[in-house]
Amino acid sequence: MKLRSTLLLCLSLLGLCTLGIKPSEAHVSVEDFDSIKLYTLKNEAGMTVKITNYGAIITSIIVPDRDGKMGDVALGYNRVEDYINAVDKPYFGAVVGRYGNRIAKGKFTIDGETYTLAVNNGENHLHGGVVGFDKVVWDAKPLEGDGWSGLELTYKAKDMEEGYPGNLKLKVTYKLTMTNELVVDYFATTDKKTPVNVTQHTYFNLAGEGEGTILDHELMINANQFTPVDEGLIPTGELRDVEGTPFDFRTPKKIGRDVGKDNEQLRFGLGYDHNFVLDKSGNDKAMTLAARVKDPKSGRVLEVHTTEPGIQFYGGNFLDGRLRGKSGKPYVHRGGFCLETQHFPDSPNQPNFPSTILSPGEEYRTTTTFKFSAE
């Protein structure tokens, strides 16, 4: 049945408009989010995901714990102004790009021509620049399918926007399934060669947003190597084995177990803020398990699967309690973690890393799934 025919105008105390025809079917609801829209995806299991078309931001992910108690596990805000005005610009829940992560000194060269980007992270470029994809208003269209509800977000980044060449047409879709999976698909085309590395920047705390630190969370990362960095968090170009280092998460361990060890890489990152080289078992584009996290207290589990070659594990090192989220509780130091599926940082300047250059006639396409459960 076409979406148009399912549109019901419902009046309620919340002024909510609901798309759908039966309570048992997948549906998408939408409400005013100040001048922006806030879309709600919900499945029969009770999992709820809220997304705004400002920055393609995931504002909320509500999932059950082992006892069936629902809790919001995504750091974020209730008002769009808070996203716009947040100190330190933490990128809560946003889609970041045109290039997620860092580019050294904000420069790269394609076919002999050097491009200069904004320097917004020390002497380097971070997450697309001053006005990246996290700070623009996307076009949004609710989606529905057999057993899932979703949202399609599109944005056209103009040639030389933030210094990047090419008119880039980008589409991101979020799909919530009946098995508590949030599937994120990325698509892009360009009319000039340009680097593209788009990722999702949600901060998670599986105990609940604002519920202390994530240091007792048990993390597994499916990676035998990581990319060590210099003091500016730019990769050196080396692929270093994790064995014998604090970066060995091949078997689950508490995030806090080794974070305080005397280690140069941990000093540079003020903790974990590093790209891990995922074990793709010889199939570089395969959908594979990248990471698994469990909160022992609540029993909530997050699995991340992706087609990407890398994942940035960030342990909330710059959170310091100044930011207060939806619950009004402060987001304390290491009060959330990010698992950003990606190509490697600074790849345009690193010839030995997998290429991030998208050419005319090609399609950029990646998929990442965040699957929630409890045990």
Q: What portion of residues is helical? A: under 10%
> If you compute it from the alpha carbons, what radius of gyration comes out, rounded to the nearest whole angstrom?
20 Å
CATH fold description of the domain at 4-200: Beta-galactosidase, Chain A, domain 5
CATH architectural designation of the domain at 4-200: Distorted Sandwich
The average pLDDT score comes to: 91
The assigned structural class equals mainly beta
- The geometry reads as globular
Largest sheet: 9 strands, antiparallel
Instruction: Return the CATH class of the domain at 4-200.
Output: Mainly Beta
N-to-C span: 37 Å
Strand order of the largest sheet: 13-14-15-16-29-25-24-19-22
The number of distinct helices, counting runs of at least 4 residues, comes to: 2
Low-confidence stretches: 1-24
Strand content: 35-45%
The total count of strands amounts to 29
What does this structure look like?
The protein has 375 residues and is mainly beta. It has a domain at 4-200: Beta-galactosidase, Chain A, domain 5 (Distorted Sandwich), CATH 2.70.98.10. It has helices at residues 80-85, 264-269; strands spanning 7-8, 17-19, 27-33, 36-42, 48-52, 57-64, 70-72, 95-96, 102-103, 107-110, 113-116, 125-126, 139-145, 148-157, 168-177, 181-190, 194-195, 199-200, 218-221, 223-227, 240-241, 253-254, 273-278, 288-294, 300-306, 310-314, 338-342, 357-358, 364-374.
Summed up, what is this model?
By secondary structure, the chain is mostly beta strands.
